[in-house]
């Protein structure tokens, strides 16, 4: 069976649910009180089924629901991504035409989220954000296949921007190299930037103190745009 982009989304949904303390998880289940089944078709014509049991436990897994679902959705793989991204207020899901998207990198979804957060700021908020950060980041991540993707995050000049790759004429104050999964772990709060540097999960070059500010960027994005707030 060929790949499904939505696999990453469902995996993150499950991680988000698992990150809730027991009391908060039960409160979410109580609020949603439903079982959902998703029948997805990718461009190759393959079909995959996922279910979200948010009635008793709070669990997302592949396959059919163990009991009759309350809601069954039949969607293309791309349409599901579009639905989820629009529900987060992030606009359409990223595609290969996106200026920030790299196929096969989970970090692409995170970068899109940060970019959307910057986009919805007021001019005053953008100036304040730049004043607090004052740095240009070059982020280079490697996925499980050994491919490398990079982004330039200019948080020094107003308005703050994110561009794909290294930008000519813009010198990074800090270059960060890491695995795709490790950068996502930073965003999800599984590891702090300081710990990532000290353990070697992040290799850095330049003004290392700017690296600590990555935690603040992740936290602010989670609070303003994040899925399940700071849980994803």
Automatic annotation (TrEMBL):
Gene3D superfamilies: SCP2 sterol-binding domain (3.30.1050.10). It holds the Pfam family SCP2. It comes from the Eukaryota. Residues 13-88, 122-219 form the SCP2 domain. PANTHER family: SCP2 STEROL-BINDING DOMAIN-CONTAINING PROTEIN 1 (PTHR10094:SF25), STEROL CARRIER PROTEIN 2 SCP-2 FAMILY PROTEIN (PTHR10094). This is SCP2 domain-containing protein.
